[in-house]
Write a structure and sequence with these properties.
The complex is a heterodimer of chains A (about 425) and B (about 325). With about 425 residues, chain A is α/β, with parallel strands linked by helices. Helices cover about 35% and strands about 25% of the residues of chain A. Chain A has a six-stranded mixed beta sheet, with helices on both faces. A six-stranded parallel beta sheet of chain A has the order 15-14-13-16-17-18, with helices on both faces. Chain A is elongated, with a radius of gyration of 29 Å. Chain B has about 325 residues and is mainly alpha-helical. Chain B has a single domain, classed as ABC transporter involved in vitamin B12 uptake, BtuC (Orthogonal Bundle). Chain B is about 75% helix and about 0% strand. Chain B contains 14 helices and two strands, in the order αααααββααααααααα. A two-stranded antiparallel sheet of chain B has the order 1-2. Classes of the chains: A alpha/beta (about 425), B mainly alpha (about 325). Chains A and B meet through α2, β6 and α3 of A and α9 and α10 of B.
């Protein structure tokens, strides 16, 4: 295999940028590869693409196209080998979509030569491939963002280059056109052997279609490899500074990420530990908010199959679980007490209580006895399904003992924030 | 699919060409003495027509030729500046060429160097201004489009102030120079017509040869590069050739406004945005509009003449207002 595009230790900066944007990036792109570049904003993805396309000359290092220094090649020579689809194109003049696609043929025309019937045929074919043939005679400045994107991709196809560089080609497309676009790129890659390099914000799409993924971080290549080597929690959590987890997409079998909260797990839990007593879906929004705000969250006791149980498991928090539809066993109670002991605060969500789960309310009382801060959301009215009012009795006992009552999740979080100091002292 | 058929374009070009020929004959025919087209053709064929022949060949033909060429130069460079600066409001004077010429002309006028030297001074003034703007817009060897526009605006206001300063200090009668500034096709020396026309025609052809590059540049410079255009070279070439054409036009006739702004817009509505068609179409239509404006300028307050810039502004400004309303939609 031979490298069609190669960056050797390139350093790039913009005239007015304080420091270099690319800091010694090296990479080889082999003929026929399908490469995705991912990374957070400002990590240098677009700059890398510009350097590779011959637009931004590195102040150190070199870029080779077919083994030759790209910055010593004429624009026409480059344009016959690399087609570029930029992030956003702005049009001030009323060219038709067809005229724009036809411009893709200009690297092959002499100065006074006009496009021939063959060129027009290719433009039409390219428009058909991107499902944009019906837009051919429309003015490009009057198309929607997604329609324009498809026209620009058609132009790159009409340019008949062996390399395609795309900067977030899916960003302004709706999901059906997004999938169609990636399928088209895959087809061009597999059937015509085109080398495709694209920046993508959508890691899951990149993971699904690209054969290799390059993760950029702070102007450097963090890691490069097949999706299952690269899409790993420990890599992405640090690069993106988020809490996420990786699982396998059940349909495509490719690794996929789910973002949990806006700060990396190292920081989570710094604010304190909260145990949530919930059920029936009453706890899910609360747990999410707590995770987003950076608390370490545990939950239970929850029956398997309960909405909140499913949510808690998929959010990856520690849960004490009970068999489906079964009353809470003493074994579960003791393991839940363990979690409560570790927690700083216990929050009881607005869940209904019956004989099966009244033990959860008793656990809250236990927490208060252990000197924990307990917050209950909502009154007990209409939630007590124990035939003799036991739940209501324990509830008032709780308030008696100093548990604080709030009406909404929002208020509970407010209280939590205010109480942070107290919690740590306790 | 409405893939604009070639025959349509040719037909439209034919129509505006016929209008141009009619305007040309009208421009020669109209005056204190009406000369019918038949006599004009006979004079062109070398027949001796006595005094009418003199009027045609010595007085009216040079003026019509100048109008023809200046109209072409102004409107085709209007296309270039709008495309290159990616700004539909740009016109041939946006980079300060007109103010530079005006300062040059004022110097010649106030220093009493002689009226026949005004075109040379105006030309020097315009080219010097353009070179300055070019230098100001250069960054790291690249011509930065936004800076070109800003530098042009700055030069325009600076030079206008400078000219007013000259005038106030000298305390001269300004009637003549103000008339020159408003544009005038009459009383231009034959030699000036010949030389400036040569520059303008050269500029026009150079511009036309860059039609496809201009198409691509008007979509964005990086885009153009990705489609194989040597952007810096193309911009420099377009900048130089259109400045030369406009500089020559302004030096010969003064500042004739609105033609270079309005005609490209009109032609875009008729022909679309492809500069390879738009440039010749604007050249043809610009000539007709200028010749017809010149005819009007001679007729409105005959036997006296209005400055032609007054007429083009009177036609152009309302038309432009109409365009703006239309584009708001």
């Amino acid at each position: 295999m031979s490298a069609v595009l190669e960056a050797i230790e390139i350093w790039c900066k913009y005239p007015r940028s304080p420091g270099p944007v690319l800091k010694g990036v090296s990479l080889r792109i082999e003929e026929g590869e399908f490469v995705g570049i991912v990374g957070p904003n400002g990590s240098g993805k677009t700059t890398l693409l510009r350097a590779l396309s011959g637009t931004l000359k590195p102040f150190k290092g070199s870029v080779l196209l077919d083994g030759r220094d790209i910055y010593k090649m004429s624009p026409k020579e480059i344009a016959r080998r690399i087609g570029v689809v930029s992030q956003d194109s702005y049009f001030s003049f009323p060219f038709t979509a067809f005229e724009v696609v036809l411009m893709g043929r200009s690297p092959y025309l002499k100065r006074f030569e006009w496009e021939k019937e063959r060129d027009k045929e290719m433009a039409r074919k390219a428009l058909a491939l991107t499902d944009a043939l019906h837009l051919a005679s429309r003015r490009i400045d009057e198309l929607s963002g997604g329609e324009r994107q498809r026209v620009m991709i058609a132009r790159a196809i009409a340019q008949e280059t062996k390399v395609l560089l795309l900067d977030e080609p899916g960003s302004s497309l709706d999901i059906n056109h997004q999938v169609e676009l990636y399928e088209l790129l895959l087809l061009l890659n597999e059937a015509e052997g085109k080398t495709v390099v694209m920046i993508s914000h959508d890691i899951n799409m990149a993971s699904r279609y690209c054969k290799r993924i390059i993760v950029m971080d702070e102007g450097r290549v963090r890691i490069s490899g097949a999706p299952d080597e690269v899409i790993r929690e420990e890599v992405l959590e640090e690069v993106y500074d988020v809490d996420l987890f990786v699982h396998q997409n059940p349909v495509t079998g490719t690794p996929e990420i789910t973002v949990l909260s806006g700060s990396a797990p190292g920081k989570a839990g710094l604010k304190g530990k909260v145990h949530v007593i919930c059920g029936g879906g009453s706890g899910e929004p609360l747990i999410r908010r707590l995770l987003v705000e950076g608390y370490e969250v545990t939950a239970g006791v929850l029956n398997r199959g309960d909405t909140d149980h499913t949510a808690a498991v998929s959010l990856g928090i520690e849960v004490v679980e009970e068999l489906p539809f079964s009353p809470i066993s003493s074994k579960s109670i003791s393991s839940c007490k363990e979690l409560i002991r570790r927690a700083d605060v216990v929050i009881v969500s607005r869940l209904p209580f019956g004989w099966g789960n009244v033990a959860n309310l008793e656990l809250a009382r236990e927490a208060k006895r252990l000197g924990k801060d307990v917050i209950v959301i909502g009154g007990i009215e209409g939630r007590d399904y124990t035939s003799d009012g036991s739940a209501a009795a324990i509830y008032s006992e709780l308030l008696e003992m100093g548990a604080r009552k709030v009406d909404t999740i929002h208020e509970a979080l407010e209280l939590l924030r205010k109480g942070e100091g107290d919690v740590e002292e306790a | 699919m409405r893939d604009r058929p070639k025959i349509g374009v040719s037909a439209k070009i034919l129509i505006i060409s016929i209008i141009l020929i009619l305007s040309f004959f009208l421009s020669i025919g109209v005056g204190p003495v009406w000369i019918p087209p038949r006599e004009i053709v006979m004079a062109f064929m070398g027949r001796d027509l006595g005094p009418n022949g003199r009027i045609i060949l010595d007085i009216r033909l040079p003026r019509a030729v100048l109008g023809l060429v200046v109209g072409m130069a102004l409107s085709s460079s209007g296309v270039v500046f709008q495309g290159m600066l990616r700004n539909p409001l740009a016109d041939p004077y946006v980079l300060g060429i007109s103010s530079g010429a005006a300062v040059g002309a004022s110097i010649a006028f106030l220093a009493k160097i002689g009226f026949e030297f005004i075109p040379i001074f105006a030309f020097i003034g315009s080219i010097a201004t353009v070179l300055l703007v070019y230098q100001m817009a250069l960054e790291g060897g690249r011509l930065i489009t936004e800076r070109m526009l800003l530098s042009g605006i700055i030069m325009n206001s600076f030079l206008s102030a400078l000219m007013l300063l000259f005038m106030s200090i000298s305390g001269e009668d300004l009637h003549q120079i103000v008339y020159w500034l408003m544009g005038d096709l009459g009383e231009v020396d034959r030699k000036v017509i010949a030389i400036s026309s040569a520059y303008m025609l050269f500029g026009l052809l150079a511009i036309w040869s860059m039609g496809r590059d201009l198409n691509l540049i008007s979509l964005g410079e990086e885009e153009a590069f990705h489609l194989g255009v040597d952007v810096e070279r193309a911009k420099r070439f377009l900048f130089a050739s259109s400045s030369l054409a406009v500089g020559a036009a302004v030096s010969a006739t003064g500042i004739i406004g609105f033609i270079g702004l309005v005609v490209p817009h009109m032609m875009r509505i008729v022909f679309g945005a492809d500069n390879r068609i738009l440039i010749p179409a604007s050249a043809i239509a610009g000539s007709s509009l200028l010749l017809l404006s010149d005819v009007a300028s001679r007729m409105v307050i005959a036997p006296a003449e209005l400055p032609i810039g007054v007429v083009t502004a009177m036609i152009g400004a309302p038309f432009f207002a109409y365009l703006l309303r239309r584009s708001r939609r």
